[in-house]
Write a structure and sequence with these properties.
Chain B: It comes from Salix brachista. The complex is a heterodimer of chains A (about 1050) and B (about 170). Chain A has 44 helices and 16 strands. Chain A is α+β, with helices and mostly antiparallel strands and about 1050 residues long. Among the domains of chain A are: about 1-95; about 105-180, no CATH class; about 450-590; about 760-880, Gamma-adaptin ear (GAE) domain (Immunoglobulin-like); about 885-1000, 2-Layer Sandwich (TATA-Binding Protein). In chain A, the strands form 4 sheets. In chain A, strands 11, 12, 13, 14, 15 and 16 form a 6-stranded antiparallel β-sheet that branches. Chain A is flat, with a radius of gyration of 36 Å. In chain B, about 55% of the residues lie in helices and about 20% in strands. Chain B is α+β, with helices and mostly antiparallel strands and about 170 residues long. In chain B, strand 6 and strand 7 (about 135) form a beta hairpin. In chain B, the strands form 2 sheets. Chain B has a 5-stranded antiparallel β-sheet with strand order 2-1-5-4-3, with helices on both faces. Chain B has one domain: Beta-Lactamase (2-Layer Sandwich), CATH 3.30.450.60. The N and C termini of chain B lie far apart (about 60 Å). At the A-B interface, helix 1, helix 3, helix 5, helix 7 and helix 9 of A face strand 2, helix 1, strand 3, helix 2 and helix 5 of B.
């Protein structure tokens, strides 16, 4: 009886299932594990059959969720059993119990390899499956060549080959080096001609992994993917068993479209056309049907098609068709489609043109925010967040606020963070911003981090108009019966600073303000009390003439806290008490906090971190940011100090620890020398950072002031951690040396201003990147981002400049001027003089190419930031290759033309030396990216390369250009180039253009621009900007 | 890429697990625990996707069993949902043929005791369907043929063994 041997197992399973509770089950499992353990340990060798029995039990126990930490060896040893049943169990159990990092697996590599290269097909399958599922790096190194061989072997049956394909995919993921690109690309292309759809499906998965890493090598696979799609879309030659609910393998369709999304673009017009035909058919032909599976499968294909259309940046018509489809989807009853509709709409936001059409669905999206399904609500929130801009911010943020009270606990934190960010980014006016944040604190105080209320304080401090409004609002909230502690903090802070602006309003006399705040004191924690004490001191200071009664009360409070156990509270109480006895001197010391320098919001960073849920990771990020900001400051202050710098980067890094000590001693010195009790107690985490900052400064400034000053200095930096934020906002100790301090502060503000004019990213690289693509960022600094999007039609072009103000204050005196070279006619539409805060304006630009030339147009752009003028000169990517149209010609046409253009000046030849060494494939893709179509096989010599293209300008008709490159395989740094066209200037210009591209590879990075010397703070950008240098040459 | 496959009963008992990325035992238990908490509590008319710890999980309930597959953010959700259904159809066909046309999930909930090694056909079928977290074969017929071939190999070995033991027992009589 076959089952009799397994009786033990059956009994065990039945026992387990009869266990009344978890406790009993555990006991039974432990007993069994003990039993197995003794069996394995016993001296008598177990037969394969017995081993199999116990290993099955282990698998069952493992499946129940218990840890099985022994017997792995036995499972692995079964792999080498000669008989199929034992071997099979060995493979299955091993791949279930172990993961790729187990040491035991290493022992099996040889056996597994023998199975793979052996002749037994079933053994091959078992081995490939296990390696494909849990193979690690070591497997990768020792087995990849054998697996590759199986995949392309003509003698292997499909059932082995499809497993080999996916096994290779795993090995490639573990170590990409095991697939040798040069030889493999052609093989890969051949694999895509496979007739067996199982093998083809697996091979396409492999291709997706390969191209996701490096598409360059696999261009030849692109047309094949399109062909597979055509075959499936037309249902040509698809066996019945590969149609799923009437749809020809939806999975293969999805994979082929996925692979295509890793190629940056499709140059060949014919392939592009056939692909678009297929896509169009999918977009139009997918209907909602009753059968759920058919529906899912066809929509899986449809959504992938949408993604591909977006990626290809198709014609406007098709795009709006996509948005219309998605608009339909987000309103359907079927929840999956609704979910995916929202998700894909978010992805679609990347395409700039469709923004407006998506906005039309806003009402529906807001409805989805109340969907019963949290998955859908999350998508809706994400989409609303992404689609928010100045025009709809008010509506969206107010919706979010309304939803906040009803939202699940799990979503509140994200929701409030997003609302806060949107409010900040797109506030139409600042009083609205203050309203939103205060509401947010009111409704979801627990979820409002310190960053959020710090930010409100910064805004209010920096905008005088806002101060009375914010103070009045804070006063209103204090009247509410129960308010969140964060609300107490922010209200107390705002009223301490600005309540005197409300003096004449009812209920706003200093005394009334004081008592309404003081009412809250018993309810708050020790972290809030220091803020309240500062507020009292400030109220006292603003009460002129002094109100003896109020003074008495407040002094009594200070007195009471002088013996508080909390050091921070005690210190403040002592200091404020002493200070407030000084009368008029108080005015200077407790003066309003100075304005905070503009800076990037810590919130935005937090939003990025929110995605990563591991706290550790965000801590690493934060640390990296700290280091970055330190480095920035140190290098920037160096020249400004005027001291000759002999210390290099490395020694600068050492300064913190030194100055940290110094900081401590000056600290003491201060309190003794001035006879006041002011000390600073920055949190330990920020000490290093502060020390870093002060390294150079402490030498120059008066020692006492320097210590005080650090608090403000820190706030001036980008990406300061929140602990420093805290120090900046919460008045830890008030200044005694205000005047000196202000001088220093101004210094630092100036450095900051410098910082804020530094371009972000390499302007040169951005320009070169844009020479190859039609949209992207042309220039960015901390205040502005200039994006560009271009469309080219024959000799005409339309460019749109997107000027985005990144700040919370408007950019003024904005000017843009185009310096066109003679061959380009450029008309720039009106550029507004002011860009509102956080807004983006678009400036279209019409271009016409008159005749061939390599000259480049320059955009002179300037704006005012604070008192500083920023002026940059940028090259516009309206270069020669933009007026080329790729064309492929037949051999006959080519040679006919080539011969008819017999010599100079129509045909020019030159030997170019000092060429950047490129393989022919690399050169081909370089040419293709410049819209020069490489025609393979035209030139009999394999070391040569022949290309063709059409050039458009107003003076010439569309002109065919032919190029031939002869390389020398022995010396890649030289080549002979021949260019021919019907126009002598064109021939010359094109030849020079190609030469420039070959001699310097455009993507190669330049060494970073040297930091601008601070001695000329008025125009640092112009010095580093290659565009400016170029303009100087023009 | 599919990171893991889980089959969980309505009572939260695990029926099958398969991990295509290296998870330690501790991480595996955590995934199972937390994910069953999320999925088993979801109502019937909601979508088949949940977002959980940066993963996306596609799941579907068949009778008393939940099939869950953890995938990457950018994967095509519906495609995976239909891989699940494809898998269920394969199992259905297999168990239907071995246990008087009863749906296979009943097999695995009730008849597990008598049929553990048959139950493991769920593992074989999965291995014929997915490798490295990617779909290997989209033809039900092919997968069914391959599982049947494996079964017959096992049976053949058994017969051989039992005939051998018959010979031995007769010889030792």
């Amino acid at each position: 009886m076959a089952l009799s041997g397994m009786r033990g197992l059956s009994v065990f399973i039945s026992d387990i299932r009869n266990c009344p509770n978890k406790e009993q089950e555990r006991l039974r499992v432990d007993k069994e594990l003990g039993n197995i353990r003794t069996r394995f340990k016993s001296e008598k060798g177990l037969t394969h059959y017995e081993k199999k029995k116990y290993v099955w039990k282990m698998l069952y126990i493992h499946m129940l969720g218990y840890d099985v930490d022994f017997g792995h060896m036995e499972a692995v040893s079964l792999i080498s059993a000669p008989k199929y049943p034992e071997k099979q169990v060995g493979y299955i159990v091993t791949s279930s119990l172990l993961n790729e990092n187990h040491d035991f697996l290493r022992l099996a590599i040889n056996t597994v390899r023998n199975d793979i290269i052996g002749r037994n097909e079933t053994f091959q399958c078992l081995a490939l499956t296990m390696v494909g599922n849990i193979g690690g790096r070591e497997f990768s190194e020792s087995l990849a060549p054998d697996v590759q061989k199986l995949l392309i072997s003509s003698s292997c049956r499909p059932l082995v080959r499809k497993k080999a394909a996916l096994c290779l995919l795993r090995l490639y993921r573990k170590n990409p080096d095991v697939v040798n690109i040069d030889g493999w690309a052609d093989r890969m292309a051949q694999l895509l001609d496979e007739r067996d759809l199982g093998v083809l499906t697996s091979s396409t998965s492999l291709l997706v992994a390969l191209v996701s890493n490096n598409h360059e090598a696999y261009w030849s696979c692109l047309p094949k993917c399109v062909k597979i799609l055509e075959r499936l879309a037309r249902n040509q030659d698809i066996p019945q068993e590969y149609t799923y609910y009437g749809i020809p393998s939806p999975w293969l369709q999805v994979k082929a479209m996925r692979a295509l999304q890793y190629f940056p673009t499709i140059e060949d017009p014919n392939i592009r056309r056939s692909l678009f035909e297929v896509l169009q058919r999918i977009l139009m032909g997918t209907d909602v049907v009753k059968n759920v599976n058919k529906n899912n499968a066809s929509h899986a294909v449809l959504f992938e098609a949408l993604a591909l259309v977006m990626h290809l940046d198709a014609e406007k018509e098709m795009m709006s068709q996509c948005v219309a489809l998605l608009g339909k989807f987000i309103a359907v009853r079927e929840p999956n489609i609704r979910y995916l509709g929202l998700e894909n709409m978010s992805r679609m936001l990347m395409v700039t043109d469709v923004h407006d059409s998506i906005k039309r669905h806003q009402a529906q999206i807001i409805t989805s925010l109340k969907d019963p399904d949290i998955s859908i609500r999350r998508r809706a929130l994400d989409l609303l967040y992404g689609m928010c801009d100045v025009s709809n911010a008010k509506d969206i943020v107010e919706e979010l606020l309304q939803y906040l009270s009803a939202a699940d606990f799990a979503m509140r934190e994200e929701l409030s963070l997003k609302a806060a960010i949107l409010a900040e980014k797109f506030a139409p006016d600042l009083s609205w911003y203050v309203d939103v944040i205060l509401q947010l604190i009111d409704k979801a105080g627990d979820f409002v981090s310190d960053d959020i209320w710090f930010r409100v304080v910064q805004f209010v401090t920096n905008n005088e108009d806002l101060q009375p409004y914010a103070a009045a609002k804070a006063r209103e909230y204090l009247d509410k019966p129960a308010i969140h502690e964060t609300m107490v903090k922010v209200s107390a802070y705002l009223l301490g600073e600005y309540s005197h602006l409300l003096a004449r309003r009812p209920g706003c006399s200093p005394k009334e303000i004081f008592s309404v705040i003081h009412e809250k004191l018993p309810t708050v924690s020790t972290t809030t009390i220091p803020i309240l004490l500062s507020t009292y001191a400030k109220i006292l200071m603003h009460t002129q003439p002094a109100d003896p009664e109020l003074q008495k009360i407040v002094w009594a409070i200070f007195n009471k806290y002088e013996s508080c156990i909390d050091v921070e509270i005690q210190q403040r109480a002592v200091e404020y008490f002493a200070l407030s006895k000084k009368g008029a001197a108080l005015m200077d010391i407790l003066a309003e906090m100075p304005k905070f320098p503009e800076r990037q919001s810590a919130l935005l960073k937090k939003a990025e971190d929110a995605e990563v849920d591991s706290a550790e990771q965000s801590a690493i990020k934060l640390r990296a940011q700290q280091q970055m900001s330190n480095a920035l400051v140190v290098t920037d202050q160096r020249p400004a100090n005027g001291a000759p710098q002999t210390v290099g980067e490395l020694s600068l890094v050492k300064i913190p620890s030194m100055s940290g000590d110094q900081h401590a001693s000056t600290d003491q010195g201060l309190s003794q020398a001035n006879g006041t009790l002011t000390t600073v107690d920055p949190q330990p985490a920020s000490v290093d950072l502060l020390g870093d900052l002060l390294g150079p400064l402490a030498i120059e400034g008066p020692p006492g002031a320097a210590v005080q000053f650090e608090l403000n200095a820190v706030s001036g930096l980008e990406g300061v951690p929140s602990s420093a934020d805290y120090a900046a906002i919460v008045p830890v100790g008030e200044q005694t040396n205000t005047v000196q301090l202000m001088n220093l502060l101004e210094h630092v503000l100036m450095y900051n201003a410098m910082l804020f004019k530094q371009p972000i990213g390499n302007i040169n690289e951005r320009f070169y990147a844009l020479c190859l693509k039609d949209s992207g960022v042309l220039y960015e600094d901390p205040n502005i981002q200039i994006g560009i999007k271009a469309e080219w039609r024959a000799h005409q072009g339309r460019l749109v400049l997107f000027l985005g103000n990144k700040n919370t204050s408007p950019l003024v005196s904005v000017q843009a001027l185009i310096l066109p070279p003679v061959h380009l006619k450029i008309e720039l539409s009106l550029v507004p003089e002011t860009i509102p805060p956080r807004a983006q304006v678009q400036c279209p630009l019409e271009l016409m190419n008159l005749h061939p030339s390599r000259d480049v147009a320059v955009l002179e752009f300037s704006y005012k930031f604070g008192t500083n003028m920023v002026n940059v000169k940028l090259r516009l990517p309206a270069v020669l290759n933009k007026f080329l149209q790729p064309i492929s010609v037949s051999a006959e046409e080519f040679f006919l033309q080539w011969r008819s253009l017999s010599g100079p000046p129509l045909k020019l030849q030159e030997v170019v030396r000092g060429v950047k060494p490129l393989s022919l494939t690399e050169m081909t893709s370089l040419f293709n990216s410049f819209r020069l179509t490489v025609c393979p096989g035209l030139d009999p010599n394999p070391n040569n390369l022949v290309a063709s293209t059409t050039f458009y300008s107003e003076s010439t008709r569309p002109m065919l250009c032919l190029i031939r490159i002869e390389t020398d395989p022995a010396d890649l740094t030289q080549l002979r180039m021949t260019v021919a066209s019907g126009d002598p200037t064109l021939t010359f210009e094109l030849k020079e253009f190609i030469k420039e591209q070959l001699v310097s590879i455009p993507t190669a990075s330049r060494p970073p621009a040297p930091a601008p010397p601070a001695a000329q703070p008025t125009n640092p950008a112009a010095l580093t900007d290659p565009g400016a240098l170029l303009a100087g040459l023009l | 890429m599919i990171q893991f496959v889980l089959l969980i009963s309505r009572q939260g008992k695990v029926r099958l697990t398969k991990w295509y990325s290296p998870y330690t035992q501790k991480e595996r238990s955590k995934v199972i625990r937390e994910l069953s908490g999320v999925i088993l509590t979801r109502g019937p008319k909601l979508c088949n996707f949940v977002e959980w710890r940066g993963h996306k999980v596609v799941y579907k309930r068949y009778a008393s069993l939940y099939f869950c597959m953890g995938i990457d953010q950018e994967d095509n959700e519906l495609e995976v949902l239909e891989i699940i259904h494809h898998y269920v159809e394969i199992l259905d066909r297999y168990f239907g043929s071995v246990s008087e046309l009863r749906p296979w999930f009943i097999v695995c909930e009730l008849d597990l005791i008598f049929n553990f090694h048959k139950y493991n056909a769920a593992y074989y079928a999965l291995d014929e369907l997915l490798i490295a977290g990617e779909l290997q074969e989209s033809s039900k017929k092919t997968v069914a043929r391959l599982i049947a071939a494996q079964d017959s190999l096992v049976e053949a070995a058994k017969e051989q063994a039992s005939s051998l033991s018959n010979i031995i027992s007769q010889a030792t009589k």
